[in-house]
Amino acid sequence: MEDRYDVVWPLGRTRVEEVAANERPLDLAGKTIGFIWDYLFKGPEMFEMIKTKLSAEFPGVRYVDYEVFGNIHGSDAEEKASLSALPERLREHGVDAVVLAVGA
Amino acid sequence: MPAVMRASAVVEKAGVPSVAIGATGFDAMGRAIGRALGIRHVPIVVYPGVILTDTSETFREKVRDFVAPGVARALTERIDGGPAESAQQEPGPRDVVVSGSLDDIQAAFIERQWSDGLPIMPPTIERVERFLQWTDREPGEVIGLLLPERREATVWNVAVNGAMAGCRPEYMPVLLAIAGCLADPKFRIEDAGSTPGWEPLAVLSGPLVEELNFNSGTGALRVGRQANTSIGRFVRLYMRNVAGLRIPPGSTDQGAIASGFNVVLAENEPATSEIEWPTYRSDRGYRDDQSVISLQSVVSTSAPIYTGGDRAEDHLETITSLLVNAMGPWAYTGVSHQAWHPLLVMGPSVARALAGFGLGKDDIRQYLYENAKISAKEMERYAWQVGSTSFNLAERVREGLIPPDYALSEDPGRLVRMIPKAEWIGIVVAGNPGRNQSRAFVNNHSQGASVTRAIELPSAWRALRAQAGGRS
């Protein structure tokens, strides 16, 4: 007779704090878009092309460039400083929506 | 991708909608991280393909045709918040999740991605409780939250995974110290699924090396000794199950090629003491009557470093040369992140020879710090190829992020230091005492930075050891 085993779960409970989804602007005309970069994979070139597309579709759309927000993937100190300053920078510049790149 | 999602969570918490961009294959990783950070609603626009192997023209076409329209859509579309997944659906620690034969258990654990692919010891409640006898800590104690899945690391699930990995119950204090290292924010487990594919290496220093029968001699990093091997396996299994770092069909471990788990490296204390060098734990600020475990990432290993000669320099020049080869231009990441923890595992005979020339560990560190160099051009070119497309030494000096000596001239062929600080170099004596070999291990900058925990023994350690007949 083969031994039988009753075994327990090897994982741990997840602790997720849900963040409420923010309303997306249905029209970007006159809105301010922030670009946040991890300093990888040609982000600035990508951002410029996204700006061209958005400006063509939405008159009066404005931009806040990545330099304002700092590197979100640098040294521990750089990353911490950039992330902790983000909410204030977003408020300061009246940012309505953000584009983050480049994950790979 | 993890950094992008972490920043996205900060933006969303600040009340601003966001959209993330990731290349093919990383969108699934981004979604998994997004779920754990509570921002599963954040849209991810995919760049189809691999950015750096696309020509500049193809890159521009793909951004124009896919990424830019995708961003425009994602910024203006209503999103589906959807119902949150309930944590209550997850089993409790003592709930039986599978019942069956040994084969049934193996099959179920593999199917549910709870196994590393090797057979596991079935984690029955009785087996787990045998591990818990070897700690004074409560089973429900939360050691920390491990990203990317943001799961609780607990004393209980340390015991479960230790049992599964084939550890002996008396290894429990070591396993708990390792879990403490994994949960240390300085270790950055949230980046353990990054593409370099780094693997933790646990270094054990102290009386437990002998007491628990670790191998610190010939084949120190070979599988084959239960203590070194099963605890090494535990590290990866725990990262897989509790942090949630899984290769496909999972999505959170994107190590491009990566490597298998490392067995525990145990310090050869007699060889270290004989030459009156400080122990590894003493280097890290601990007392010699303590046993400590350190965890650090390893992303590459040197060729075997055989050294000999009549002068200290004969050894040091060769060690430097092979260390430089092992680090290569990847060292730019250490300069960029200002974090770098190369580890030199030195054979006992080499350590004895260098001590005979009057050198201590600090002298060796200083030599390596001063002499491990690479051309600025090679560093910058490689940085671009990795993806750090804006990395430039002179600019980083101008911004005050790195010391001025990285840009003393504009000559691209100028040699620059690969190791930002001498004190960041670890040195451990271990390996075959009958040979003159050392080996260098390169870490992944701030990801998997070296962290250390003292191993806390239970108050009944001696009695439990006596009961077990002192065997290990």
Summarize this structure briefly:
By secondary structure, chain A is α/β, with parallel strands linked by helices. Chain A is elongated and about 75 Å long.
Descriptors:
heterodimer; A: 104 residues; alpha/beta; three-stranded parallel sheet; 2 helices; B: 472 residues; alpha+beta; 3 domains; five-stranded mixed sheet; four-stranded mixed sheet; 39% helix; flat
Tell me the total number of β-strands of chain B.
16
Alpha carbon gap, first and last residue of chain B: 43 Å
Query: How confident is the prediction overall: mean pLDDT of chain A?
Result: 94
Give the helix/strand class of chain A. Answer: alpha/beta
The greatest inter-chain interface is formed by:
A-B, 69 and 107 residues
Count the DSSP helices of chain A: 2
Radius of gyration of chain A: 21 Å
Q: Give the spatial strand order of the biggest sheet of chain A.
A: 3-2-4
From the alpha carbons, calculate the radius of gyration of chain B and give it in angstroms. 24 Å
**Main sheet of chain A?**
3 strands, parallel
Total beta strands of chain A? 4
How would you characterize the overall build of this protein?
The complex is a heterodimer of chains A (104) and B (472). Chain A has 104 residues and is of the alpha/beta class. Helices cover 31% and strands 19% of the residues of chain A. Chain A contains two helices and four strands; from the N terminus they run ββαβαβ. In chain A, helix 1 links the parallel strand 2 (32-37) and strand 3. The mean pLDDT of chain A is 94. The mean pLDDT of chain B is 95. In chain B, the strands form five sheets. In chain B, strands 9, 10, 11, 14 and 15 form a five-stranded mixed β-sheet that branches. Chain B has a four-stranded mixed β-sheet with strand order 7-6-8-16, covered by helices on one side. Chain B has a two-stranded parallel ribbon with strand order 1-2. In chain B, 39% of the residues lie in helices and 14% in strands. In chain B, helix 6 packs across helix 9. Chain B has three domains: 2-76; 102-297 and 453-472, no CATH class; 300-442, no CATH class. With 472 residues, chain B is an alpha+beta fold. Chains A and B meet through strand 1, strand 2, helix 1, helix 2 and strand 4 of A and helix 1, strand 1, helix 2, helix 3 and strand 3 of B. Strand 4 (97-103) of chain A pairs parallel with strand 1 (18-23) of chain B, so a sheet runs across the interface.
